[in-house]
From TrEMBL:
<keyword id="KW-1133">Transmembrane helix</keyword>
<keyword id="KW-0472">Membrane</keyword>
<protein>
    <recommendedName>
        <fullName>DUF6286 domain-containing protein</fullName>
    </recommendedName>
</protein>
<keyword id="KW-0812">Transmembrane</keyword>
<dbReference type="InterPro" id="IPR046253">
    <property type="entry name" value="DUF6286"/>
</dbReference>
<feature type="domain" description="DUF6286">
    <location>
        <begin position="72"/>
        <end position="159"/>
    </location>
</feature>
<dbReference type="Pfam" id="PF19803">
    <property type="entry name" value="DUF6286"/>
</dbReference>
<feature type="transmembrane region" description="Helical">
    <location>
        <begin position="60"/>
        <end position="82"/>
    </location>
</feature>
Length: 173
């Protein structure tokens, strides 16, 4: 039985919260309007005042700008709603359903690179399927990028299929 892939929150999740707040604000506006129309409160209806302010034959500049902004915002909401959530973990090779976090892959790769001969320090960065290793080499040591690539590749074998690149710089004396 294949379980669901671990995913991040969809891009549209915060839009749902925003939509709920807007619906709540509309409910408050309509409740105030109903209370004012029935005479339960001594204030005029906010909805009636807003509609009276918009009763103009020529659209003002702020209405046109607001309409254009609403169209752009609506299109952005549609794109966010149909964009699938990104995967939060990387699948590991093997028969089981095993997933590895990107931070764990970065830590394992940095440790493997630091264990390569002549490497003083290594830092890693994982973006999608590309792992970048930055290594600081000991001065005068004959460490090569191939040694670092082999060390990292051996350690990550079976964990995730990644494209690994190495940048090596010799440290000062």
């Amino acid at each position: 039985m294949k379980l669901r892939e671990p995913r991040r929150r969809p891009a549209a999740s915060w839009l749902a919260v925003l939509g709920a707040i807007l619906v709540l604000a509309l409910a408050v506006l309509l409740a105030q309007h109903a209370a004012a129309e029935r005479g339960w409160i001594d204030q005029p209806s906010w909805l009636r005042e807003a509609l009276a302010a918009l009763d103009d034959r020529q659209p003002s500049t702020w209405v046109l700008v607001g309409g254009a902004a609403a169209v752009v915002l609506g299109l952005w909401f549609l794109v966010a709603a149909f964009t699938p959530a990104r995967r939060s973990h990387l699948p590991a090779d093997g028969p089981g359903d095993l997933w590895v976090s990107p931070r764990a892959v970065e830590a394992i790769a940095a440790d493997a690179a630091e264990r390569a001969p002549g490497v003083l320090h290594a830092a890693t960065e994982l973006r999608r399927r590309r792992l970048r290793v930055k290594a600081l080499l000991a001065p005068g040591h004959e460490a090569t990028i191939a040694d670092i690539l082999e060390s990292v590749g051996d350690r990550l074998s079976g964990l995730a299929e990644l494209e690994v690149s190495v940048q090596a710089k010799e440290g000062g004396r």
